Protein: RPW8 domain-containing protein
Amino acid sequence: MAASFVGGAALGAVLGELLRAVVKVQRKTLMFKRILERLESTLEDVIPTVEKMEEMDKVLDRNNGEVGKLVKVIQRGKKLVLECSTIRWWYACWRRPRYADKLLGLEKSLKAFCQIVLQVEQSRDTKETLLEVKDMHQKVKRLILNGKSGGIIKMPAVLSGFHVPEAVGNPVGLEVPLGELKMEVLKDEASLVILSAPPGCGKTTLAKLFCNDEEVQDIFKGNIFFVILSRKPTIEGIVQRLFQHHGYKVPDFRSEEDAVLHVEKFLKNIGPDPILLVLDDVWPDSASLLDNFQFRIPSYKILVTSRSVFPRYGSTYKLSPLNYSNSRTLFCNSAFLPGQDSVIPDEVVNRIVKGCKGFPLALKVVGRSLCGEPVDIWKKREAELSKVGSILEYSDLLFCLQRSLDALDNTPIIKECFKDLASFPEDHLIPATALIDMWAELYKLDDDGLQAVSNLHELSSRNLADLVVTRADSNGYNQHFLTHHDLLRELAIHQTNLETFEQRERLILEVTANDVPDWWVEQKQLRFHSRLMSITTDERFSRTWCNIQAPNVEVLVLNFRTRSYTLPEFIAGMDNLKALVITNHGILPAELTNFPLLSSLSNLKKIRLEKVSIPPCGFTSTRFEKLEKISLVLCHISQALTSSSNLVISEALPNLMEINIDYCNDLVELPPEIGQLAEMKRLRITNCHNLTALPREIGGLVNLEELRISSCIEIAELPDSIGNLHKLSSLDISECADIKRLPEQIRELQNLRRIQMMGCSKDFELPESILNLEHLEEVKCDEETAGVWQPFVGFLENLTIKVNKEDINLNWLNGGRF
Structure:
């Protein structure tokens, strides 16, 4: 069977060579038999897909540069496999684990490759319509989502879209409901099942457990789509992300009916495996949306979670609250530390547990709020809960959660931080980096984020939010995100709304379509005193902005989902604005217009932009007098930092101290003028796969303390001028596999304390001038490069080598937030 896959063009041929090597080594050694068998199975899935992808590129007459970057990786993989056959038995005891880890890393890299290539393919600015390439898209549609090894490859949690999320923590008491739900959904006659329960009862958790169940995954394979709906979703938005998730070019829909026709064709073409579509959190006023997703497709099933019951749409499985035994177990897991001897009387614990009425959310939040508290606080909470007849009522459940929130009165900043989470849309990952910027200004926390992340951990430990770390990142918090239950978000908004409208510390405005507040329609000149303002609009918003007067706003959060976005004129009146967070929650970067308006904000210190297209010279056409930090994520930045005809970059950004650029794939080169930013302390460029080099002018950043060039796979060397960065204390070149050596001039970096280089070439060379780095304290790398550093340990007395054994694969292949 393997022989039939060998051949093809370009990358397909290279993969074929790797497959031959795997088959050959399997016959010669039993040492890595199981790993090699899985690797062979993965290659058998990947190779035909790659060949079809190359065929599609050829037909469309386009050059797939992204695929070409993988050739060297595969060639290294072939060399690694062949090396496995040369290991002698007397070395096996200590070399086998090392090579096993590398083989596993190779396997993961191949699978991750398929994800990133699909995402890059869909983001091309091509003019072909869906119908023109439909047949070819059908051929590349599945990649390795259903590997023969039996493993379903899930998208990383950082991706927005339709990956199958895993249940957080260890759910209690859902084994029986899971079995019953499987029986209901998997019945031949069942096409649509409603999973219904009151809020906070565990509907979404049960749905996630269902999707991750081994039997369910064996049936549906890669055709499980988990859709988290907003309060008022649009058909176009859901269908667009379905296409994106499956790697197809997102079509332009003329109407809702057109979107429905496209999704029906899409679902009919992704067989032959059965299809499961999960629609999570459907509200009663969105029930009619279900009509648009019911099609006559064999083995196509829909699972809906909702607080309501929709009898006309199908059978209903009602999830009951936990019984007392499971309730007490879940409560005690939150209320008591492992191994802790409880001094709380059993009767007090029992009455509090019963007061929570079996609702998992209430049990976890109330339990954690009492953890470590004295008996008197427990008795007070018991008395409060006894006044609630039943928290089956929504208002009573909020009351129960409110009492737990009151426990934060002794730590007011944590309570305020909890309320701030409502600034971001429901059911979206909240980037920790955005919260760091906000809280640094609102509460005067440190700019490095240590205090802010500590607050995130505190909220998570109290079950008021879930902290999601998609990848260990010891040099920043780009991979830290927060989520929280929609009920907890409603609680935060409820807390905010207790104040009078004009006097609120936070103004959280959510506009669905053009349904704006009365004061907006009447164009009343309301003057708000808020320090934090959040405005969320969707793709249907088309109204003219009203004239909001908010001179006290220090942090502004703008959330939208559209192809173009005009910055509101009223921003110019926010004289005290210090931090601006703009996030496009759509699929592709949106055109951001009226950008020069931002230069009128005389106190603006931090800008964070996500998934927007910044106009050329956007940051240099006018002066940003006090701007200290720019963060760009998934943006089209083109010439945004290039000096304009009016100003050079040092005049436009005289006080800029930090630039963060992440997943900006149109960044090919940094403008040489960047070396004029004399105040710059931190330059972080990560996951910019088309960045080819750093300008030699970077040596002009004489105050730079941190340089991070991570997962920029096209960069082949660091410029010699790096030796001018005399204040540099941290250098990170992780996952830059083409960098083979450090420049001789590194000897000039006498303040260098830390170097990170995980995932670098095993042929990496160190210059002898490394011996001049007397203050170097830590090098973090993987096993392949640790040996390069080992000879220097005896000469650099402060040096410690830390081997990172977890990040053995090429993590730059993991997709970003598309």
User: Anything to note?
Assistant: The mean pLDDT is 80.
